[in-house]
Every structure is written in C-alpha cells, then in structure tokens.
Design a protein that fits this description.
This is histidine kinase. This protein has about 600 residues and is α+β, with helices and mostly antiparallel strands. The protein is about 45% helix and about 25% strand. The chain has 5 domains: about 5-130, Response regulator (Rossmann fold), CATH 3.40.50.2300; about 150-255, 2-Layer Sandwich (Beta-Lactamase); about 265-375, Beta-Lactamase (2-Layer Sandwich); about 380-460; about 460-590, 2-Layer Sandwich (Heat Shock Protein 90), CATH 3.30.565.10. It has helices spanning about 15-25, 40-50, 65-75, 90-100, 110-150, 170-175, 195-205, 255-280, 300-305, 315-320, 325-335, 385-425, 430-460, 460-480, 500-520, 555-565; strands spanning about 5-10, 30-35, 55, 80-85, 100-105, 150-160, 165, 180-185, 215-220, 230-240, 245-255, 280-290, 295, 340-350, 355-365, 370-380, 485-490, 525-530, 535-540, 570-575, 580-585. It has a 6-stranded antiparallel beta sheet, with helices on both faces. Strands 2-1-3-4-5 form a 5-stranded parallel beta sheet, sandwiched between helices. Helix 14 packs parallel to helix 15 (about 500-520). The two termini are about 85 Å apart.
C-alpha cells in the first residue's frame, strides 16, 4: 500500500468492539492511528480534521445508522466499510448498491485487514485510471488547441497511388475547394511552375535520404489576388519498404504570409535605420558577457573602424580602441550595479593620432545573482559637435575676459579717478557736509571693490598670475569666510596645467561651492583635488539636504558641459537628506 501509516476513523458505540477491530489491524501489521466516535456530529468534525484514509462503521448506533454516516461523505472518495453483527443480507446488498465499499461481520474480524487492504488497492487503481483518463483528455485538448493556435494544415501522401489527402485547413491555405481534399499529388498546388520544380527537387533530396526533413517555403498567387500568399510546408517520409522505397509521408502546411510581410518590413526598417545611423554617426550594439556574444551594427563598425575586423571581441575592442585614460572610468560606470548609463569617452582609431569622442548610453540587465546578463546600447560620434561647442565656449570665455578687462581698465579706472576727485573736494568743514563726503567715499570704495570682484570672476587673471593650486586654496579661504560650515580640503596638484583645464576645474569647484552656500544647509564640506598618472580628479562633498538629481538645473548642466569640453567625465550623486557628491575626472595630456 502507498500509506506508511493509516488514519482510521471508527464510528462505533461499543468501546470493546472498537478495541477488537484495532487489535485485528495491529495483529495483521497495519500501522495505524485510530480515532473512535459514537455520533454523527463527532464523525463529521473528525472527517475534516483527522482526514482518515479509511472509515469503519457499525451499522446500528443509538443516534444513526452507517448509511447516515456514508451520506455525510458525499463526494469524498474514502473506503467505507461496515462492521456489524445484526445486518441482514438485504440490508448489506442495499448498502453496497449505495456505494459502501464492503461489509465485515463482527464475528469474522480477522477478515478486516484483508478487506481494508483490498479496498485501498482498488481505490488506488481507480485513482490511477481516472488520472490516466484525465491526462488523455487533456492531451487531446492540448493537441486540438495547438493545431488551432498554430493554424496548421495537415497532409498525408501515399507514394504508391501518388495520392495526397488534405484536411480542411490545408485546403483553405492552398485556396482549394472542399471537394478536392483527395487528389493526385503534384508537389502541392496553386503556384508557378518554377516553384514546383524547386519543391520537386527538394522532395527528391529528402526521399533519397539526403535530408532529415522536407522543409520549404513557396508562394501562391491566385488570379484575383493582389499579393502573393506564402506557405511553409514541412514533412517527412514515415514509412518505407524493406528496399527503402518510400511508401508514405506526412506533414503540415502553414500560412506564413504575415511573417513574410513582416520580414520585408523589417528589411526596409533595417535599411532606414542604417541610413539614419550613417547620417547621425550613430551605431548600436549588444554584448552578452556570459556567452561572449557581441553584436553590432554597421554604424558601430564604421565609428570604431572595424570593417576589417568583423570578429573583434569586446576585450580586444576595450584594449585597442578605448582611450587608456578613459578605461578606469568606463569600468567604474559599467560595473557599478546601475541599470542605465549615459557617458562620454574617447576612442582611438587604428591611426593612433586620430582620437574621437563618443556619447555612449545603454541599458544593463542583471540576473538574480547580480551578474551582468547583457548590455544593449548606442554610441554616437560627437567629435565635431564637441569641437563646435569648444569653439563657442572659448569665444564666450574670450568675450568674458575682454569685458572683464574693459570693466577693470575702463569703469574701474573712472571710479578710482572719481574717488580721488571726491577726496580732493574742499568743504565748509561743517559736520553735515563732511559726513556726506565720507559716505560718498565709502560708497565709491565699495563699488570699486565690487567692480574688481566681478572683473576677477569673469576673467582668468587670478589663475594666470598664481596658477590652479593657489587659486583653489584662495577659493577655500573665501568659502570658509562666507559659509556657515566646516571646510576640509586636500589639494595635491602641480601648477603647470594649461589654462583651459585649470579654468574648467576652478569654475566647476566655484559653481559647486556656491550651490552649497546657497542651498545645501550643510555642516561639513570637503574639497579634494588630486592628480594621478593620467587624470586629475576634482571631488566636492557636502552633508547637506541633498536633492533629486533628475532635476537637471543650469548649474549642473554648466558643470557637466565644462567637464565634457575637456574630454572629462562628470558624475553627481545625491538624494534628499543624504548630502551630495560631485566628481569630475579630467584626462592629462601626457
């Protein structure tokens, strides 16, 4: 039996009779847990709580009969065995007709274990038969659904009579009337002779055993149809004579017109995409690290000049094309656990003197272990855009410097002269006039200082005179003076950077610290500038209120643009209540 331990529910008002029944079961080696009840209420409760494998019931009880208890079972499929002394033959037959499993006299309790075992085996066989029948019905339903869902037609070919039989769906696909379901085989119907010759050749190849399956597509064009219908035919020889002569073949037909139309649309869209990539200098790619598969478009190959290296691996691409100064940053971006990235970096073409600037953005998918499954993205050559932006930016900087000189040398000198003129004025020495003269002198001094400050901020004069390191130290002194926070700094750089790079680093630090002063409400601010073998890194950190970086404010845009113009990489990390980290990497021209 399939049970390690039987749950037996006894409906019996005689404790002695119940004990005798259990004794016989134990003596026969049937390991069991038994619960004895003497009324229908307790019987019903234990039926659902105890979940018996077998029910044993006396026929006559003070409040009910065994048939009353059997009615309680309803649709529950449990062997029900009556054990009683005072049951006549007619009563026993009636009980068996109602569905009671068996009857055992209390005078022959030694039969009880055998009856139970037989009943359990019969119940098991019945369950198995019902399971098989259910699975057979399900299989048939699945087959019917599969044929209906796939819209498959079926055909059967008799080589001896050269007769083919089509089902109704096959006739519909081929455009044949219902009465032509059985006809002479002519390598399928409804198409040009050229198609028939090709199908005949392929069928002969399969019949000769040179192909495992017959699998071909062909088109049908009826006289009244504007476009052709495409059909996929598949099949194989399923019976041969002892000498190998084919006797019978079977297979399927499928209308694949929609698939063919979509393929044609896909080809057109692919051509449009390739043209768009060429015009916009864009390429697309997909990399699956676990399999090593790397797919890329023609636009990607053109940007990286891979025409002569179609099998180039990602490792080779990284080593031979990505600029050495940008590799650490690219690794950090791609393997930081984020699902999306949008960065700029440089590549080297086979001619090492030619450096291109790319915008690289894409989506990264991970498995449940956090490993990268695929990276799918696009790259765009923005070298020309960057050169134009740089030219515009340099022109703006030149104009700022010119305006700063005009303010300093023009308006500033006039204010100085005015201040001296006012100082030289004679007054009547009255206290009122002397006080007014001093007020005007103070106002002129304040105005002159503000003009000088504006001039310094607009020009690079401080950088030109003192270099980046001292200018950064001066910036730290300024914010320590005006800011209500503790400033720590680490500035470990030489002063021999070119003016464009120095100005970018200083302006980004200035923009970041001004934002901290205005909005951050920070207690601690850290400014770090340090150089490595290939990069100079600026990092400004605060523990202020933070903000949502999705808000692409002008200050962030300006810092990002200044970094990009130096072929650098900009990152900002912030969240509400957790402070802000601004970090820029700048490559050193070595």
């Amino acid at each position: 039996m399939e049970y390690k331990k039987l749950n037996i529910l006894l409906l019996e008002d005689s404790v002695e009779d119940a004990e005798l029944a259990i004794y016989e079961l134990n003596r026969a080696g049937l390991d069991n847990d038994a619960v004895t009840v003497n009324n229908l209420k307790s019987f019903r409760e234990n039926l659902y709580d105890f979940l018996p494998h077998v029910v044993i019931s006396d026929y006559h009880l003070p409040s009910c009969t065994a048939l009353d208890a059997f009615d309680v079972l309803g649709d529950i499929d449990i062997p029900f065995i009556i054990v009683s002394r005072l049951v006549g033959e007619e009563t026993a037959v009636e009980a068996l007709k109602k569905g009671v499993t068996d009857y055992v006299s209390k005078d022959h309790l030694s039969r009880l274990p055998l009856v139970i075992e037989r009943a359990l085996n019969e119940a098991k066989a019945l369950r198995h038969r019902k399971t098989v029948e259910h699975e057979l019905i399900q299989s048939k339903e699945r087959l019917e659904l599969a044929l209906e869902g796939t819209n498959l037609g079926v055909w059967d070919l008799d080589f001896m009579s050269n007769t083919i039989v089509y089902n109704s769906r096959s006739l519909s696909i081929l455009g044949l009337p219902p009465e032509e379901g059985i006809q002479a085989f002519n390598y399928f119907q409804g198409y040009e002779n050229v198609e028939r010759e090709r199908l005949k050749q392929e069928m002969d190849e399969h019949v000769a055993g040179r192909s495992a399956i017959f699998d071909q597509e062909f088109s049908i064009r009826n006289d009244d149809a504007e476009t052709a219908k495409w059909v996929l035919v598949r099949g194989k020889v399923i019976r041969r004579a002892p000498d190998g002569t084919p006797l019978r073949a079977s297979g399927t037909l499928m209308d694949i017109t929609e698939k063919k139309v979509n393929e044609e649309k896909l080809k057109k869209n692919q051509a449009i995409l390739e043209n768009a990539e060429a015009v916009a200098h864009i390429g697309s790619f997909e990399w699956m690290p676990r399999s090593g598969r790397f797919i890329y478009s023609d636009g990607f190959a053109e940007i990286f000049e891979l025409k002569n290296k179609p099998e180039l691996s990602v490792r080779e691409l990284y080593r031979d094309r990505i600029h050495s100064q940008d590799r650490p940053y690219l690794r950090e971006v791609l393997f930081n656990g984020k699902g999306f990235y949008d960065i700029e970096h440089r590549i080297k073409t086979p001619n090492d003197d030619d450096v291109r600037i790319l915008r690289n953005s894409g989506n990264i998918k991970y498995n449940n272990k956090g490993n990268i499954v695929s990276i799918m993205g696009i790259v765009q050559d923005i070298t020309e855009q960057r050169e134009i932006s740089k030219s515009i930016f340099n022109a703006q900087q030149y104009e700022r410097s010119r305006m700063a000189r005009d303010i300093h040398d023009g308006i500033g000198q006039m204010l100085v002269a005015t201040k001296f003129k006012i100082s030289s004025l004679e007054t009547d020495h009255s206290e009122i006039m002397e006080a007014k003269k001093e007020e005007i002198e103070d106002l002129m001094a304040t105005t002159l200082e503000e003009v000088r400050r504006v001039s310094r901020n607009m020009s690079n004069r401080h950088l030109e005179e003192f270099g980046l390191k001292k200018t950064m130290e001066y910036l730290v002194e300024q914010i320590q003076y005006v800011g209500d926070f503790v400033v720590t700094h680490y500035i470990d750089i030489p002063d021999d950077y070119n003016m464009e790079l120095s100005n970018a680093i200083y302006r980004i630090a200035q923009e970041a610290t001004n934002n901290i002063i205005k909005y951050a409400h920070a207690s601690n601010v850290s400014i770090k500038v340090e150089s490595t073998n290939q990069n100079i890194i600026l990092e400004v950190t605060d523990d202020g209120v933070g903000f949502d970086t999705e808000n692409n404010w002008n200050g962030i845009k300006n810092m990002k643009e200044r970094t990009s113009l130096q072929n650098g990489h900009f990152e900002i990390s912030s969240s509400v209540g957790k402070g802000t980290v601004i970090k820029s990497w700048f490559p050193l021209n070595t």
